[in-house]
Design goal:
The chain is built from 3 helices and 8 strands, in the order ββαββααββββ. By secondary structure, it is α+β, with helices and mostly antiparallel strands. It is elongated, with a radius of gyration of 16 Å.
Length: about 150
């Protein structure tokens, strides 16, 4: 059986935000075993799996990507929507707009980060534009089992 739902995530400002709880609250009961595909329908946002044990990971990722894809680069042609627009599209393409995950025993099988503080792997929404607080993200979940 294949099912598909679409929902809206609340608006987030620029940054990397842990959204596991928000996504899990939107999902209906999952099958005993299967896969789930999550798609974010926005060209300046991305989805990733990230650890929850140390917030420095998200800070370091922001720093890495801001250096890799800077604002106001002289070689950008697409500049009509502001200095953060083209870097936002690039970061979204690099990180990706989908996640495909296993469902095991009726739960998402996200794994576990083995550190002293007991962090777990979490969904991270990467909102790549400044002023992103006025955007909500549309997401589609497709899941199924045989």
């Amino acid at each position: 059986m294949i099912q598909q739902i679409e929902f809206t995530l609340r608006a987030y400002p620029r940054g990397i935000h842990l959204i596991t709880g928000e996504i899990l609250n939107k999902l209906p009961q999952l099958p005993e075993a299967g896969i789930i595909n999550l798609l974010i329908k926005h060209t300046s946002a991305a989805l990733a799996l990230n650890e929850n044990a140390d917030p420095d990971v998200r800070s370091d990722l922001r720093s890495i990507f801001d250096r890799m894809v800077p604002e106001n680069a002289p070689y950008y042609l697409h500049t009509d929507e502001g200095p953060d627009d083209m870097p936002s599209h690039a970061k979204s393409v690099i990180v990706g707009s989908t996640l495909t995950l296993p469902v095991t025993r009726g739960r998402l099988n996200l794994g576990f980060v083995r550190v002293c503080s007991g962090g777990t792997t979490r969904f991270a929404l990467w909102r790549t534009r400044r002023g992103g607080s006025d955007y909500s993200e549309r997401a589609t979940e497709t899941y199924g089992s045989h």
